[in-house]
Amino acid sequence: MADRFVETLYKGYAQSFELKGKPLVDERSDFQHILIFDSVLNGRVMVLDGNVQITERDECAYSEMLTHVPMMEHGKVERVMIVGGGDGAIAEEVLKHKSVKEVELVDIDGRVIELCRQHFKSISGAAFADKRLKVHAVDAFPFLKDDRSAGRYDVIIADRPDPVGPAGVLFAEEFYRLVERALKPGGFATFQTGVPFYQPDELTDTHRLFGRLFAHHGTYLSVVPTYIGGFMALTWFGKSASLGSTSPSVIAERFAKAEVSTDYYSADVHGAAFQLPPWVRRLLD
Fold it and tell me: Which residue in 138, 150, 205, 243 has a CA-CA distance of 20 to 30 Å to 38?
């Protein structure tokens, strides 16, 4: 139907969005098809190559959890790299922290960045106008391979799509090794690793690879309604420390001191995110 968008990410299951008016963007960039529309229930939505990437209504459950969990555990983040994230949602969350001096946003598709700056101001806020943010419309691999990236970042956040097509390289050992190289001692990297209810192999394979590569690694959870399937798995590794090891009282103190405004993340949610249901633990075992 012309007034609906139907996402069929999984064989045998789909979700449907009723549109408000005509799509705002329906075009192909050098890398992917970009669709942006207003929906009846979820506000503005961006779809890349047929897969929902972000909606105004629930982006907080994704961007806040990828961002504030590692930043609160670290305690004094000054430099952050975002791989992908052209919509600016994660950049906005990072820049809420007063300790941050520099954020490097590296997204290969400059057209996505351009369109999101125009159509998703409600999500990015003042991020793109913040002098601390540097935007690079380039491939993350050569950026990470540059010696200037080595040991530079306290936190690296990979806002990557699912491991299909060109995005598959963002789930490979070489990518993770480059991310580790770019972290400072005590730094953390976080990644989206799919919805384990429908994508169990994605989480299992990533956990096995991390176990082979890194001494400190693990999984925590968020719930993003339009990433259909319930829990979303957010994986991480640390250069020399572990997420989830900081005491709840310290996290609560840091969160209060940071004065960060959130819709999903809180000190209580922070701790609860590491409590995995038995069926998720079995995927890791």
Answer: 138
Note the CATH architecture for domain 59-284.
3-Layer(aba) Sandwich (3.40)
Cα 170 to its chain centre, rounded Å, is 13
**Cβ(140)–Cβ(108) below 8 Å:** yes
The CATH superfamily of 4-55 is Spermidine synthase, tetramerisation domain (2.30.140.10)
Tens of pLDDT, residues 113-162: 999 999 999 999 999 999 999 999 999 999 999 999 999 999 999 997 66
Residue positions counted in the chain: 285
Distance between alpha carbon 245 and the CA centroid of its chain, in Å? 21
**b/e for 98-135, b at 16 or more Cβ within 10 A?**
eebeebbbbbbbbbbbebbbebbeebbbebbebeebeb
Supply the residues annotated as catalytic: 159
Write the CB contacts of 123 (distance below 8 Å, at least 6 apart in sequence). 44, 54, 56, 59, 87, 88, 89, 92, 116
∠ CA 242-243-245, nearest 5°, is 75
Helix or strand run (H / E) with residue 115 = helix 110-119
- Angle, CA of 62, 65 and 68, to the nearest 5°: 135
Q: pTM, whole model, 2 decimals?
A: 0.95
Cβ atoms of 160 and 170 closer than 8 Å: yes
Dihedral angle over CA of 48, 228, 238, 153, nearest 10: 30
Q: H/E element holding 222?
A: strand 216-223
